[in-house]
Write a structure and sequence with these properties.
Strand content: 5-15%
Distance between the termini: 31 Å
Number of helices: 9
Number of strands: 4
Shape: elongated
Length: 297
């Protein structure tokens, strides 16, 4: 217990003595994790948007006018036999017109002069996620378009594919920036600890002469690095959460309300834990590098 208290007290003493060097270390870690956190929040929410949209994704099959009940029954049976199709919903011409009127409420004049109902009946198909790729959807729409009674087939997958590509690029960019800033943080922590080590060179030499092990010498400095890394990551998370809440307040939204699709969430708990753990690891590793070099000299 006395040894543990000594290590903790020694680490805190080193931290106080580090002055602006310690501030620079913590500040660099804060900036690094804020930038990485922004990328994680953006890509996480865009990913949630895409996942939610894929869950609701539909292929619309517009039917020819005059299709009979028997033809419709046969068509639905043929459509449901497709492996990609999860479920089908039929919308008659009358239902489609009523839905259009609801969506165009206040603009009913647009329908005047059209005469009979111009909106075709349709089948809305839910597609299994495994088949929501450009190639699979092209095959599906081509197959459906050849069926008797089908006027046209439409789906809106293009923008989701583009958004997925954007998310992929952002993740790669975030990883690259995070690695670069993590390396910068590691170097600054390492230099800060090295200054502390050299400032106490005589004391450390005396400890070595009286038989102190390398582990005993290293631990206070490693703990100092862990404190710097953890403090930096924690401050970054507080700044991120404050900015996140301020943004939601500014746009008058609550978490999960943006686009009505569960978008607008903060970092998932596992990311919070991982960021703190990585911060501590960066600090510890930076300290080990500096102390190791000194002890080998």
């Amino acid at each position: 217990m006395d040894r543990l208290r000594y290590i903790v007290e020694d680490a805190l003493t080193n931290l106080r003595r580090s002055g602006w060097g310690g501030v620079a270390s913590v500040g660099t870690i804060v900036v690094s994790f804020v930038i990485v956190g922004i990328f994680l929040i953006i890509t996480g929410n865009l990913g949630a948007l895409v996942a939610d949209w894929k869950e609701q994704f539909q292929v619309t099959v517009f039917l020819e006018d005059g299709i009979t009940v028997d033809q419709l029954a046969l068509l639905r049976k043929r459509v449901q036999s497709e492996r990609a199709v999860r479920s089908t919903t039929y919308t008659s011409k009358a239902e489609a017109l009523q839905q259009f009127k609801r969506e165009m409420q206040g603009k009913e004049s647009l329908l005047e002069g059209l005469g009979e109902n111009p909106i075709p009946a349709s089948l809305q198909l839910r597609v299994h996620e495994a088949y929501q790729t450009p190639e699979a959807l092209k095959q599906l729409t081509a197959s459906l378009g050849r069926l008797e009674g089908v006027e046209d087939v439409m789906y809106g997958q293009e923008w989701v594919d583009r958004l997925s590509s954007v998310i992929h690029v952002l993740r790669l960019l975030g990883l690259s920036v995070g690695l670069a800033l993590g390396l910068a943080s590691l170097l600054i922590v390492s230099n800060t600890i090295r200054l502390a080590v050299y400032a106490r060179a005589e004391e450390i030499e005396v400890m070595r002469l009286v038989g102190a092990t390398r582990l005993h010498i290293r631990l206070p400095f490693v703990l100092e690095g862990i404190i710097q890394g953890t403090l930096g990551a924690g401050l970054a998370l507080l700044l991120l959460f404050g900015a996140y809440r301020a943004t939601l307040w500014q746009i008058q939204m609550t978490p999960g309300q943006i686009f009505g699709m569960g978008v607008g969430s903060f970092l998932a708990p596992h990311w919070v834990v991982l960021m703190v753990a990585v911060g501590a690891a960066v600090g510890a590793f930076g300290s080990l590098i500096s102390v190791g070099r000194f002890l080998r000299a």
